[in-house]
Amino acid sequence: MFPAVSHTLRRLPLLHWLLLLLQALERGLGRASPAGAPLEDVVIERYHIPRACPREVQMGDFVRYHYNGTFEDGKKFDSSYDRSTLAAIVVGVGRLITGMDRGLMGMCVNERRRLIVPPHLGYGSIGVGLPQTAALPTAGLIPPDATLYFDVVLLDVWNKADTVQVSILLRPPHCLRMVQDSDFVRYHYNGTLLDGTAFDSSYSRDGTYDTYVGSGWLIKGMDQGLLGMCPGERRKIIIPPFLAYGEKGYGPISSPGTVIPSQASLVFHVLLIDVHNPKDTVQVETLELPLGCVRKAAAGDFMRYHYNGSLMDGTLFDSSYSRNHTYNTYVGQGYIIPGMDQGLQGACIGEHRRITVPPHLGYGENGTGDKIPGSAVLIFNVHIIDFHNPADPVQIETLSRPPETCNETTKPGDFIRYHYNCSLLDGTKLFSSHDYGDPQEATLGANKVIEGLDTGLQGMCVGERRQLIVPPHLAHGESGARGVPGSAVLLFEVELVSREDGLPTGYLFVWHQDPPTNLFEDMDLNKNGEVPLEEFSSFLKAQVNEGKGRLLPGQDPEKIIGDMFKNQDRNQDGKITAEELKLKSDEDQERVHEEL
User: Fold this and answer.
1) At the top level of its lineage, which domain of life is listed (predicted)?
2) Under 8 Å CB-to-CB from 114, ≥6 apart: which residues?
3) Residue 43, Cβ density class (10 Å: 0-12 exposed, 13-18 middle, ≥19 buried)
4) Are 189 and 268 in contact (CB under 8 A)?
5) Eight-state DSSP code of residue 531
6) 359 vs 339: CA distance, rounded Å
7) Is residue 1 a contact partner of residue 115, using CB atoms and an 8 Å limit?
8) Strand 429-432 vs strand 141-142: parallel, antiparallel, or unpaired?
């Protein structure tokens, strides 16, 4: 195209055109057609047509294009390439020579055409003078009756009536939220001109573009094009220049020579990562709620839960499942981010929740580590395993009791047999007496079982069934035990099979009534003044069989009798004499006197 001062290819004054028209009619000017007659119209050769042509040039459109202009002999009279400046002008309103106006109609962006413009559609019989420039030192006149040859490539087209064009390329099946004015967004983009020339990309900077929408931080077209987007959505946004950088253009952006030219349409391929509003609160969505929720988590509770943590576009940044261990913490005490502290309260054991945490209740503008960027919205899919309060007692629920009257219930010191199933509150089975066939045996109050189970087994009738919920401070504590996680709440289902009265502390055998008056004589079966182990054992077993006394329950009778014999055989000579034999009550009385 001619230099700007020459108003290249623009229409001559009306008087000149009238003169040209008269001369053409008189002389029949124009390049001959293949049949030998002058050309009546522009000859258009479309030698490169792009596969996709979403828009064709129409009258009144603003276009930007490159061209070379030559005569029939190939001599160049003008070129936009030599000036490194595209031709930019409105088509079909008399600002171009008629032949160029017609030759541009219907063109697609990136299409290439060869145009042959006859004189009467160019500069006619008058021609025009061109100023010489450094780029065109040989430029001069376009002679009268010159047929002009143009090689044109269209790079941009828009119209003042255009709006932002939005094409949804991919939309996630679940849209958590749509962008609205005043929202803060994080997105990736590739920015190109309409012909595909790249001018900028967030991917090249290895970081999202973070900004407010509708607050004047963005060009108007991008403000409009982002509205209604969902996290994870991909869009193509085409912005006309009057909603972008207009006549001034912009640049360079990131590297030398990367500029947005004047009056350029812009194309952005956008991927929305997340969106939030500074006024947002924590969003809680219950995905699965177990039946029979009788207690909800409150501030001060200690909770064990599993979670998957992801960004709003689905990028996973952490998971407790990958560590095969629950996350254990107090709720509402500031040990976790504020949004999670709020989102866990009110949850039931076994509940599945989705908790969406805006950045001002998460990790803020700075983010944390290399996986949670600044200003990131966090989404946690949480499964509540259990929770308790350090002040919780054992929870006891009677499932069934025998129909007959129960006059005696279990108490500390009793020897009991019971069946049990033990599990976590999420249903994970830990232990069961049924796996071993025989009931479990224990003496209540003797520190033989965990404190909470000991408490829950007291006051039971034989045949009674109970459900016990034992908090960890009454079970295995923070450290847990083999097969039991730390800080785990335990669920027991117990059934009392039998109960026997226990013995006072320190006693291995007691009489139901007073002992025999002549104990040693009764025990000395062969009357030789000595009682060996065999006689001692026979005597005690006879007392038990006759219901006169009983041994410590839950222990091997032979071992108990052996221990008792050793206690009485003071000199350890294998036999007991009358001087050695003493009742425990007598020994205790002697000890009292010694202390006094």
Assistant:
1) Eukaryota
2) 44, 45, 47, 149, 150, 151, 152
3) middle
4) yes
5) E
6) 9
7) no
8) unpaired
Q: Are 240 and 225 in contact (CB under 8 A)?
A: no
Residues whose CB is less than 8 angstroms from the CB of residue 590 and which lie 6 or more positions away in sequence, other chains included: none
pLDDT tens readout for residues 46-91: 999 999 999 999 999 999 999 999 999 999 999 999 988 899 999 9
Tokens found for residue 563: 């221990």
Nearest to 187 by CA among 82, 269, 286, 262: 269
Name every residue whose Cβ is closer than 8 Å to that of residue 39 and which is 6 or more positions away in sequence: 30, 31, 32, 33, 116, 118, 147
Q: Which position has the token pair 């989102």?
A: 343
- Helix (H) / strand (E) containing 350: none
pLDDT tens for 166-225 read 999 999 998 989 999 999 999 999 999 999 999 999 999 888 999 999 999 999 999 999
Task: Tell me the three state secondary structure of residue 139.
Answer: coil
> How many angstroms separate the CA atoms of 156 and 158, rounded?
7
- The pTM is what? 0.72
Between CA 421 and CA 495 the distance in angstroms is 9
3-state secondary structure of 472: helix
User: Tokens 């069946």 correspond to what residue?
Assistant: 419
Written as six digits, the tokens of 113 are 């055409």
Q: Which token pair is 333?
A: 């005490």
